[in-house]
Design brief:
The chain is mainly alpha-helical. About 85% of the residues lie in helices and about 0% in strands. The protein has one domain (about 1-85).
């Protein structure tokens, strides 16, 4: 059951990223681009989490899956700061 939830989380993050990118291409609002990049990184984070759960305790991907999450948050923060000026 947990595997299905992690897969659906990754799929939802990817769907959000695609919709945000489509919105960016339609209106060229930069905040949509930064948000879409953040969701791409979060989708990658969820996919690595899925692989981590599937492989079990033999392979620890904790640090590997935290890097995309950190990159996503930094991208979102950068976008918020850049667009507030």
């Amino acid at each position: 059951m947990a595997i299905a939830v992690y897969f659906l989380c990754a799929l939802t993050s990817l769907a959000c990223a695609v919709m945000l990118l489509r919105g960016y291409w339609a209106g060229r609002v930069r905040l949509l681009l930064w948000t879409a990049l953040c969701f791409c990184a979060l989708a990658l984070n969820n996919l690595i989490l899925l692989v981590d759960v599937l492989t079990g305790p033999e392979l620890d991907l904790t640090l590997t899956r935290k890097v995309p999450a950190l990159i996503g948050v930094v991208l979102m923060l950068h976008g918020l700061i850049a667009d507030s000026k």
